[in-house]
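JOB MANIFEST
job_type = single_chain_structure
chain_count = 1
residues = 380
[input]
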Amino acid sequence: MTNTTFDVAICGAGPVGMALAALLARRGMPARRIGLIDAKSLGAAMTDPRSIALSYGSRLLLEEIGAWPIAATAIHEIHISRRGHFGRSVIERSEHAVPALGYVTRYGELVTALSLACERAGVGVIRPARVTGQLEHADGVGIKLDDGRDLDTLLMVQAEGGLFGAQDDKAVTRDYGQTAVIARVSASAPIAHRAYERFTDEGPLALLPQEGDDHRQYALVWCVRPETAAALLALDDAAFLARLGEAFGTRLGRFTATGARAAYPLGLNAGAAGTARTVAIGNAAQTLHPVAGQGFNLGLRDAAVLARLLAYEATPAALGKFALERSADRQLVVGLTDAMARAFAGAGPVQALLALSLGVLDTVAPARTLLAELMMFGRR
């Protein structure tokens, strides 16, 4: 790429950054005026086996970009419960007139589809290149890359967030004292297209249906205390699966196999400060607890609103409008995930009341509908 002057420079070519670039081009911004910068190679991202949860609303945005269909498993039901207590709630697609509440795909599949969408739109990517400095002035932002190149842009978007614990603190930060253990596991009595969110004393345990003709595979996100996570990672496969069965129960029969395990720390880090000509979106703006699987979906809505505004005018005024338009959705999702992560962790009588509230939710259709629509579309 020889052009070094842009209307919008996007730092981070992950799913949210690429979605923004493709949406900008689709809404009429010339592709040559969009700078997409990434420190990673495309090959590494395309082969990333991690699982990612997409809401139905995110599917609609991906369709608009031209990044759908992709290999994904549909979620028709979400079963929510509290371990050791009565009370549960089930959210079903049939109540909401949608083909699926959401989908589970591999990170690499999503990156591949979005990369092709950017390529079709003519958006090039500067990679591998890391931003080492930026200087904002009255007419734009100067960006320095680690390969010695200097770029100029009217506006700069930070879309590279990283993991909690490796980020600078934002306006609102909280360490949950939890670590997410992730793996792909198989069950002996799977229920097709049903996802589970099961709250335990140490944190939520999510099982998301993940591909395969026999529907036996699930993407596991198990949130526990750091010392428990270290112990789980040290177990052999049989012992790990036994511990998982103790925590989850027998709704899916026995857990029969597991893939490689990994772990990452969990915290809330939200409220990134923007400037007249810079803005953060996605994980760079708000790093959330994975409960309810809202992080990527919130970031994709960031990208959709920002693209609509910047395609009309790439100015500081547009960034001001973006902050106002996104405030309510961001605050609601951040507040909800934070409350769920904290309220349902721990032991004691209050957990029985919280479990009972899940049963009440199951009998109050308007409340269940409101929760489902928030998970699918955010606050509208």
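[summary]
The two ends are 38 Å apart (CA to CA).
The longest strand covers residues 172-187.
exit_status = 0
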